[in-house]
């Protein structure tokens, strides 16, 4: 064959804008003004910075900006450039945009490494073309793209799980391959955690599974069990997919945290140690493309960088959103079955729809429900991974995407209906722990907001786009309809959401359908509405998140803390943790301060075990400070021995804090912007208490609403329902269907023996002080009953029903004042209300002890 002639050297342009304009096959005559502005600012300010964040809102063309800068750097500096996307769909989408829209050649790399085309690999290695691939291709124990000079990270605001997963061991007992490991770790932890925690962890108590229950193993405990913990994980992960992340963190376990959930564990560091990954660390230039700059240093926490230079969206552009959205909140007016019918009707009207769900389980449920729609083609994320053409060409189709905030775009007529099922605010157990157990959701504000906005922006990708957004599930509905949360959004989003809420209140199913028709027709009737939204937008302003400046000032110290801890430099970790605390002054950061006092104490504890004799005292001081910083947080009391904790908080205080925390979780699960779910539960309880056959179940549900661990058993000699707190409880003998006005000896004997039965049969009751209470309409007792009634309380059934009505009223009022999210101020007020209304376990027992059955009942 003849020798190949050398290719002409590619032209070198002075800047990326000139390069883009030279692409003869581009479909855009020129770049948009905001794109040009941010590229020019990048060239002036950030060209040589190691870490740079570029802010452009969703749908504003940040792919063009990032790809053009990457292509220019490849040519100008002869660099190898890797462009990272969260998913395969987005890799393929980016490559198509580069080739078909921008006239720029780029190579997509997805799937298995061994299947990469040799020619494509060579083109990348020689710096001839940009490589577009997934996060996992870099954040991997054996990364294929280990030699990039510039790494461009698209959707960096969604990167937490994609990056953090590399150093995360997630153990799920529902997966057969993880089950033995889960049980073995639970057995190791059993002597060190509460009985209730152990029962939830192992699945014996299911009532907390739907409230997002999460706990963390304190560092003092993890230190005690370190060797056994490592040995078990070594043994059980060897033949599973968990071996890769476990091998990365096993020698750094003291720098990690162990979180527990219902039948699950998560082991990971607070901040991902990206500085240990050569493929990422050695790149001379890293560009983070984001719809937000991550207020309060969130981007640094997500990516493990100390400092990221930020280039904000061009002035004026960040006051606009892209396209028009019509929000529909059917849960504000309709029952669940009507919501399903409404969604199916909207799908029929729209022809094509996209549905985002929080999990595969939820996606499967949705598929079952939409199967009722005739002649409908259903696509999964995998079905449109390579191309969405089959979906777009279908006249009647639905794409159901599970577990995705990010996703493929559906602009223009490709889709006019986006259904968003209840996407959770917390993406993993660590985020859930920070938000709910430490009362520090403030830390996650930017992260949560960006994920939600990213989800609802799938179908509005240009100024001319418009899409109906059908919101279901209480958590997302509460978030988007909360006026305080909305105040932190761009004005146009605020106006759209306010309009959507107004149209969703006190309406019927047909009203939703009629409004959808008007919106999709996009005619004169909608133009009048459009004018109102635009007018409202002008009167609205975006408020910054509180305490952002303090969080931003602290973040570089937080990363330094994690670096020191990872290197077993506990002295450095302690110094940096204390330095973080110096920055956190705002009252809103009390929960986060408590967390950093704990982290300081943990570093001091490790230091003391290296022989620093004074560090042990420092650890205890910091743990005490954690408790005092936010005594509404029951988790912090697990840091010290009971006697030491009692010096700060009494056992009753800790029990009350735990009760309030559980009430908060239960009420949040019922929704804060509507009373429908609460009213349904209230109705079930009140009607059940009037029915002798449903009385016991109603009693169980009432106890759960009051924040107690509850149960009931149908076995022989078992008691009726029980309510338990950490160290105290009550167990009932319900004799509500009594046909006589007297209590027999057998009933009395059973009631007196119930605490012993619980102690023997119920794990969560072991060691608890249990009070037995008879609930009955009787006024008398047989002579043989009285010897058994000396320590048994008595509650007249009608009085119990009246008390239940009162208790439900208090819970309704607490729900009315509950913000959309964990709130320490609300917890403090709720604790006071429970004490004033005598609804704590201590006061319930105290009041009932004043009516002992032996004295309350008269002899026959």
Automatic annotation (TrEMBL):
<dbReference type="InterPro" id="IPR011545">
    <property type="entry name" value="DEAD/DEAH_box_helicase_dom"/>
</dbReference>
<dbReference type="GO" id="GO:0003676">
    <property type="term" value="F:nucleic acid binding"/>
</dbReference>
<keyword id="KW-0547">Nucleotide-binding</keyword>
<dbReference type="GO" id="GO:0005829">
    <property type="term" value="C:cytosol"/>
</dbReference>
<dbReference type="GO" id="GO:0006139">
    <property type="term" value="P:nucleobase-containing compound metabolic process"/>
</dbReference>
<dbReference type="InterPro" id="IPR027417">
    <property type="entry name" value="P-loop_NTPase"/>
</dbReference>
<dbReference type="GO" id="GO:0016818">
    <property type="term" value="F:hydrolase activity, acting on acid anhydrides, in phosphorus-containing anhydrides"/>
</dbReference>
<dbReference type="Pfam" id="PF00270">
    <property type="entry name" value="DEAD"/>
</dbReference>
<protein>
    <submittedName>
        <fullName>DEAD/DEAH box helicase</fullName>
    </submittedName>
</protein>
<dbReference type="GO" id="GO:0005524">
    <property type="term" value="F:ATP binding"/>
</dbReference>
<keyword id="KW-0067">ATP-binding</keyword>
<dbReference type="InterPro" id="IPR050742">
    <property type="entry name" value="Helicase_Restrict-Modif_Enz"/>
</dbReference>
<keyword id="KW-0378">Hydrolase</keyword>
<feature type="domain" description="Helicase ATP-binding">
    <location>
        <begin position="43"/>
        <end position="311"/>
    </location>
</feature>
<dbReference type="InterPro" id="IPR014001">
    <property type="entry name" value="Helicase_ATP-bd"/>
</dbReference>
<dbReference type="Pfam" id="PF13307">
    <property type="entry name" value="Helicase_C_2"/>
</dbReference>
<keyword id="KW-0347">Helicase</keyword>
<dbReference type="GO" id="GO:0004386">
    <property type="term" value="F:helicase activity"/>
</dbReference>
<dbReference type="InterPro" id="IPR006555">
    <property type="entry name" value="ATP-dep_Helicase_C"/>
</dbReference>
């Amino acid at each position: 064959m003849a020798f190949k002639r050398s290719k002409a050297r590619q032209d070198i342009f002075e800047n990326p804008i000139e390069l883009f304009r030279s692409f003869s096959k581009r479909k855009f005559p020129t770049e948009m003004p905001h794109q040009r502005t941010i590229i020019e600012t990048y060239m002036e300010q950030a060209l040589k910075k190691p870490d740079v964040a570029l802010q452009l809102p969703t749908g504003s063309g940040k792919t063009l900006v990032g790809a053009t800068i990457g292509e220019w750097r490849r040519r100008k500096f002869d660099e190898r450039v890797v462009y990272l996307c969260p998913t395969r769909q987005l890799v393929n989408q980016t490559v198509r945009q580069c080739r078909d829209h921008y006239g720029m050649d780029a190579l997509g790399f997805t799937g298995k490494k061994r299947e990469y085309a040799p020619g494509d690999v060579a083109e990348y290695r020689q710096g001839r073309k940009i490589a577009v691939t997934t996060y996992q291709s870099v954040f991997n124990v054996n990364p294929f793209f280990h030699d990039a000079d510039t790494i461009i990270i698209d959707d960096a605001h969604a990167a937490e799980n994609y990056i953090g997963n590399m150093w995360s061991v997630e153990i799920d007992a529902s997966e057969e391959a993880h089950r033995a490991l889960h049980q073995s770790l639970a057995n190791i932890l059993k002597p060190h955690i509460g009985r209730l925690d152990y029962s939830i962890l192992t699945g014996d108590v299911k009532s907390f599974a739907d409230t997002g229950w999460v706990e963390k193993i304190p560092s003092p405990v993890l230190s005690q069990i370190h060797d056994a913990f490592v040995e078990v994980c070594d043994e059980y992960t060897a033949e599973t997919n968990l071996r890769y992340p476990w091998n990365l963190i096993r020698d750094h376990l003291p720098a990690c945290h162990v979180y527990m959930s219902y039948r699950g564990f998560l082991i990971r560091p607070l901040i991902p140690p990206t500085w240990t990954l050569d493929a990422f660390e050695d790149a001379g230039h890293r560009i983070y493309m984001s719809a937000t700059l991550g207020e309060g240093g969130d981007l640094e926490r997500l990516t493990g960088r100390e400092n990221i230079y930020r280039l904000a969206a061009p002035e004026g552009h960040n006051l606009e959103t892209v396209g028009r959205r019509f929000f529909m909140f059917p849960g504000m007016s309709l029952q669940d079955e009507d919501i399903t019918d409404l969604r199916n009707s909207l799908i029929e009207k729209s022809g094509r729809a996209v549905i985002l769900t929080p999990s595969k389980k939820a996606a499967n449920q949705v598929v079952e429900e939409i199967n009722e729609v005739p002649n409908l083609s259903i696509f999964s994320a995998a079905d449109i991974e390579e191309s969405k053409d089959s979906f777009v060409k279908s006249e009647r189709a639905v794409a159901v995407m599970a577990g995705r905030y990010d996703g493929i775009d559906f602009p223009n007529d490709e889709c006019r209906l986006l259904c968003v099922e209840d996407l959770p605010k917390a993406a993993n157990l660590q985020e859930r722990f920070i938000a709910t157990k430490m009362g520090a959701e403030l830390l996650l504000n930017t992260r949560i907001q960006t994920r939600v906005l990213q989800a609802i922006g799938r179908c509005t990708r240009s100024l001319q786009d418009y899409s109906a957004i059908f919101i279901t599930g209480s958590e997302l509905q509460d978030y988007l309809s909360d006026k305080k949360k909305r105040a932190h959004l761009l004005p146009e989003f605020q106006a759209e959401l306010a309009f959507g809420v107004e149209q969703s209140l006190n309406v019927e199913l047909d009203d939703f359908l009629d409004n959808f028709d008007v919106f999709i027709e996009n005619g004169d009737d909608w133009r009048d509405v459009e004018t109102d939204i635009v007018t409202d937008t002008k009167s609205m302003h975006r408020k910054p998140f509180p305490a952002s400046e303090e969080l931003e000032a602290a973040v570089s110290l937080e990363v330094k803390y994690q670096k020191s801890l990872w290197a077993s430099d506990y002295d450095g970790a302690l110094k940096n943790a204390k330095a973080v605390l110096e920055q956190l002054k705002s009252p809103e950061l009390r929960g986060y301060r408590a967390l950093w006092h704990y982290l300081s104490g943990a570093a001091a504890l490790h230091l003391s075990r290296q022989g620093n004799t004074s560090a042990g005292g420092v650890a205890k001081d910091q743990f005490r400070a954690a408790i005092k910083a936010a005594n509404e947080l029951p988790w912090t009391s697990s840091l010290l021995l009971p006697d030491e904790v009692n010096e700060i908080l009494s056992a009753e205080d800790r029990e009350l804090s735990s009760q309030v925390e559980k009430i908060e979780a239960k009420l949040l699960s019922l929704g804060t912007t509507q009373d429908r779910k609460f009213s349904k539960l209230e109705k079930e309880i009140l009607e059940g208490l009037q029915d002798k056959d449903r009385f016991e179940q109603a009693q169980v549900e009432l106890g759960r609403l009051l924040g107690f661990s509850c149960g009931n058993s149908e076995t022989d000699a078992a008691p009726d329902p029980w309510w338990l707190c950490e160290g105290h409880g009550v167990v009932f003998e319900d004799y509500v269907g009594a046909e006589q006005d007297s209590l027999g000896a057998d009933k009395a004997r059973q009631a007196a023996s119930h605490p012993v039965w619980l102690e023997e049969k119920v794990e969560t009751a072991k060691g608890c002080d249990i009070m037995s209470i008879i609930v009955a309409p009787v006024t008398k007792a047989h002579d043989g009953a009285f010897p058994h009634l000396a320590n048994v309380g008595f509650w007249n059934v009608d009085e119990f029903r009246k008390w239940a009505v009162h208790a439900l009223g208090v819970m309704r009022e607490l729900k009315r004042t509950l913000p959309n999210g964990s709130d320490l101020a609300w917890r403090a007020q709720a604790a006071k209300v429970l004490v004033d209304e005598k609804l704590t376990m201590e006061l319930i027992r105290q009041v009932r002890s004043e009516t002992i059955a032996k004295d309350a009942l008269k002899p026959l």
